[in-house]
Specification:
Low-confidence stretches: 94-103, 105-120, 176-215
Number of helices: 14
InterPro entries: SCAI (IPR022709)
Mean pLDDT: 80
Distance between the termini: 65 Å
Order of helices and strands: HHHEEEHEHEEEEHEHEEEHHHHHHEH
Shape: globular
Oligomer: single chain
GO molecular function: transcription corepressor activity
Length: 428
């Protein structure tokens, strides 16, 4: 009976996971695919780009915990998306037909008469020889802070020279009981009445007891395990590991507390991508509940066009396939333009320049730029910075969301999807 209940829970988690993860079915893979994620117009610029030092993504640590978040077993939706984002998409070269003598059940071309399926040699090493090795990844679910720190220390100790270590943490900055998604309507006056429907939603998840002191802390809450101190990860906990190159992604309502790392490093300046403290959405506030859909910031980093559609309240049933493909072409063209801007000599901080040649990290940087520009133009100026992501060190002004070129890219994309009225463009 116990096993039955456990398996029933696992099946329920898988059904819930698949329901959220398959919202947009006919889309590009989350994994890095040379066909979709390299751009002919900017390829030569990236190839010619040379920094004084070049770092390669070798290891990544991924951890996520939010109360009632979408997961199955110990793999959360946010971690799954980021895990896929740091993998190469196989080209298919490793699928080989098993050579076998034809018999009564198998034809000479490798098809079985009964099923018509191609036999695949599952015993072979499932590694695509045409691709580089994937970065090594460690996944932790609801770790104690001491456990997380010990794993980080082990990876840093073994990190090869000229490599960088990516740390992705998705967690709440508050401990407390989820009271449901709260929302409020943003209005902008008669001149922009169309924006009156914009709703931002923010829900934090934590333990059953609310501590007013915890709500103002400068830490991430990793889960209800052990004493309160063992659940909290502070920016200072990561400082000893800045003796090695770090690429830190913090997706939290308290992400900006980790700005304290910048300037306090012990040897290597860390690259920081920090999420907004609150998500923003058009229309239904339910879209902003991370316990139902995963994090908006992580979705922008792993599936940017899907995140943009979610931002403006579009679903797969709302978008014609040809329109979606056209929007994807516009976004790819924008990414290509931004790559060229980033490759300009002397315009990029060394911290970003040394990781730009790495395809995984370059793609994350481009998607961060897209996320920041989209949210900057979507949210009202008086909303403040809590709805905007941030990065340290700063990226060049050429890719600032206030620049005319960046706004033109977002305007073209929003026009294609018929949602230009949802944004505030300075260029119009």
């Amino acid at each position: 009976e116990t096993n039955f209940r456990e398996w029933k829970l696992v099946l329920q988690e898988i059904v819930r996971f698949l329901k959220v993860d398959t919202t947009f079915m006919d889309v590009k893979p989350l994994r890095y695919c040379a066909k979709f994620d390299t751009y002919p117009a900017s390829l030569s610029h990236v190839a010619r780009f040379h920094a004084k030092r070049v770092l390669k993504l070798n290891d990544a640590l991924l951890t996520s915990y939010h109360r009632n978040e979408v997961k199955f077993t110990e793999l959360t939706l946010d971690t799954f998306r980021m895990l896929q984002c740091l993998e190469w998409e196989p080209s298919g070269a490793f699928f080989q037909l098993r050579t076998a003598e034809p018999d009564n059940h198998v034809t000479s071309n490798g098809h079985t008469e009964a099923s018509g399926l191609i036999d695949i040699n599952l015993a072979m090493d499932m590694t695509d020889p045409t691709l580089p090795l994937n970065p090594r990844k460690a996944i932790l679910y609801r770790p104690a802070a001491t456990h997380l720190v010990s794993v980080i220390a082990t990876i840093c100790e073994e990190l090869p020279p000229d490599s960088i270590f990516l740390i992705y943490i998705s967690a709440s900055g508050k401990t407390g009981k989820t009271a449901g998604a709260s929302s409020h309507i943003q209005t902008v006056g008669a001149s922009r009445n169309s924006l009156n429907n914009k709703v931002d939603s923010h829900s934090f998840r934590g333990s059953d007891e609310v501590d007013s002191h915890d709500c103002d802390g400068d830490y991430l809450w990793l889960g209800p395990k052990g004493s309160a101190g063992s659940n909290n990860l502070y920016p200072d906990d990561l400082l000893p590991f800045t003796r090695r190159p770090l690429f830190l992604i913090v997706d939290s309502d308290n992400s900006h507390a980790f700005k304290a790392i910048h300037g306090a490093e012990r040897g290597e300046t860390a690259a920081l991508l920090l999420s907004p403290r609150k998500p923003a959405f058009w229309g239904s506030s339910s879209a902003g509940d991370p316990s139902k859909n995963g994090s908006q910031f992580t979705l922008f980093l792993t599936a940017p066009l899907q995140a943009f559609c979610q931002l403006v309240g579009l679903t797969c049933s709302d978008i014609d396939k040809d329109v979606y493909n056209k929007a994807d072409e516009i976004l790819s063209s924008a990414f290509s333009e931004w790559e060229i801007k980033l490759c300009k000599p002397y315009s990029l901080d060394l911290v970003w320049a040394q990781v730009l040649p790495d395809p995984f990290l370059r793609r994350l940087i481009l998607r961060f730029i897209f996320c920041r520009s989209s949210l900057y133009l979507f949210c009202l100026r008086e909303d403040g910075e809590e709805y905007l992501p941030d990065c340290l060190p700063k990226l060049p002004n050429d890719v600032s969301p206030s620049s005319e070129a960046m706004q033109s890219n977002i305007h073209q994309l929003s026009e294609c999807l018929g949602v230009a009225s949802h944004f505030n463009f300075d260029i119009l």
